[in-house]
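Quick one - inputs below.
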Amino acid sequence: MIPEPLEDLIRTLAKVPGLGRRSAQRAALYLLTHQEHLGKLQADLQTVQLKTKTCSVCSNIAMEDPCHICTDPKRDDSTLCVVEEIADLWAIERSGAFSGRYHVLGGLLSAIDGIGPDDIGIPTLLKRVTDGNFAEVIIALSAGVDGQTTAHLLSQKLQPLGIKVTALAKGLPMGAEIDYMDEGTLNFALQGRKSF
Ligand SMILES: [Zn+2]
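Output:
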């Protein structure tokens, strides 16, 4: 029923994280019925492929390699922030609260998916820390099981190098109502309390 080329497009789109078959179908039909968007999408994909590079130092995506964050002389060389994905790096940059360097793992350890330390560039990170002058590594990974497993392994590997290893505070989100919080979050918030 679906023409073969359109079916191919739907299958390709469905591989995009968060899309799935139904959304891929909607996106494909929308693009086909809005030719001006299709043309722009074609051009954007080509440009992004031609003009962006993966930074060989931190794995960020940028116009140059090394990226502008790795080469910025105004940034602090003593702190390194480890994140899972490039989008996490962007989020921390938007906060304006961090001025050190980054390392993007590109994934998390996962026993179920068979993802081990070598798959997410942990050896590269350890080499970078060993060769560099970092005094502190901030582990900014998600609070889920895989994030915490990865954080635990990283701290085990980094601490013997004489590096201070820290993690993001866990607790109440801004504007949160205490009686809506789950026990785990409240527990972390209490443990991580600070003096005024
Ligand atoms: Zn970089």
